[in-house]
Specification:
With 271 residues, the chain is mainly α. Helices cover 77% and strands 0% of the residues.
Length: 271
C-alpha cells in the first residue's frame, strides 16, 4: 500500500504541474500532451481487447490520430483550412472494412466495431479538448472543465463512500451511489455559480448557462466514467492499464472528459 501511495504522489507531483503549465501555455505543448493521452488510451484499449481475442486496427487508428494532430497545426498556423472530419471518417471506415476482409482474424464484427469506437470515443472526443483550448477564452474554459470534473469526482467519491447506500448501476460500477452522484452534481453547480459571478466575459449568469454547464460537468462527465467502467467490466479488468503508477491507465484518468469535452465543445459552438 505504501509503495502504491508513493507512486500516486510521484505522478501527482509531476503530472499536475505539467497539466497546469500545458493548459496555460496552450499551443503545441498542450496539444502534444492531449495526443499522448489519446495514443496511450488506444494502446490500453487494444491490450484489453486482446484479452477477449478482439484485434482492433491499431495502425489505421494511429494514422487517423496523426491527421487530427496535423489538422490543428494547419488550421492554426498555415492556411486556416476547415477540418474534413466526415470525409476522413468515411475513408477510415472503408480502409478498416477492407483490411478486415484479408486479415483472417476471429470476431470480425467486434474487430471493426471496437476500432470505430476507438476512433470516435477516444480520438474525436478527446481531440475536442484541443479544439476548445484553441477557441476564444479557451484557456479559461479548459481550466473550468478540468476543475469541474475533478470537483465532481471528488465530491461523488467522498459523499458516496461515506453515506451512499443505493447503487446507480451496480452491474456496471458497484461502488457508484445515487447520493454520491447527486453530491457531485450539486458541487459542480455551486462551482459554476461562483465562476459565473466572477467571469462575466465568459458567459452571462443565467439559468440556461448554469443548467447546461452543470449538466455537462456534473452529469455527462459521470456518464463518461460509467461508460469506461462498463467497457472494463466486459473485459474483466479493474484498471485500463498501469501507465500512471497508482492511478491506473490513461483511460482511467480521461474517462470523464471523453463525454464532457465534446459536450462542452457543442455548447461553446452552438449555444
Amino acid at each position: 500500500m505504501k509503495k502504491n501511495n508513493d507512486s500516486r504522489l510521484l505522478v501527482n507531483l509531476i503530472g499536475i504541474p505539467l497539466l497546469l503549465s500545458a493548459i496555460y501555455y496552450g499551443g503545441l505543448f498542450f496539444q502534444c500532451l492531449i495526443f499522448v493521452s489519446i495514443f496511450f488510451s488506444t494502446y490500453e484499449l487494444e491490450k484489453m481487447c486482446l484479452l477477449k481475442k478482439i484485434n482492433i486496427h491499431i495502425i489505421p487508428l494511429y494514422l487517423f490520430y496523426t491527421y487530427l494532430f496535423l489538422n490543428h497545426l494547419i488550421e492554426i498556423n498555415l492556411f486556416n483550412k476547415q477540418s474534413f472530419m466526415i470525409e476522413i471518417i468515411i475513408i477510415l471506415s472503408i480502409v478498416i472494412l477492407t483490411f478486415e476482409l484479408f486479415r483472417d482474424k476471429e470476431k470480425p464484427i467486434e474487430n471493426l466495431g471496437v476500432t470505430l469506437l476507438g476512433a470516435i470515443w477516444i480520438g474525436v472526443f478527446l481531440d475536442c479538448i484541443v479544439s476548445i483550448r484553441n477557441m476564444e477564452f479557451g484557456m479559461s474554459w479548459i481550466f473550468i472543465m478540468f476543475v469541474s470534473v475533478w470537483i465532481c469526482d471528488s465530491a461523488a467519491f467522498i459523499f458516496g463512500s461515506k453515506f451512499g447506500k443505493r447503487k446507480i448501476l451496480e452491474r456496471v460500477s458497484p461502488n457508484k451511489t445515487w447520493l454520491g452522484s447527486i453530491s457531485g452534481l450539486l458541487s459542480v453547480f455551486i462551482f459554476i455559480f461562483i465562476v459565473s459571478t466572477n467571469q462575466n466575459q465568459l458567459f452571462e449568469k443565467s439559468f440556461v448557462n448554469l443548467f447546461f454547464l452543470t449538466i455537462i460537468f456534473g452529469m455527462i462527465s459521470q456518464f463518461g466514467d460509467l461508460v469506461e467502467s462498463m467497457i472494463k467490466r466486459q473485459f474483466g479488468v479493474k484498471d485500463s492499464g498501469r501507465s500512471l503508477r497508482g492511478h491506473g491507465g490513461f483511460l482511467d484518468r480521461m474517462d470523464s472528459l471523453m463525454l464532457a469535452a465534446p459536450s462542452l465543445y457543442l455548447y461553446l459552438s452552438y449555444l
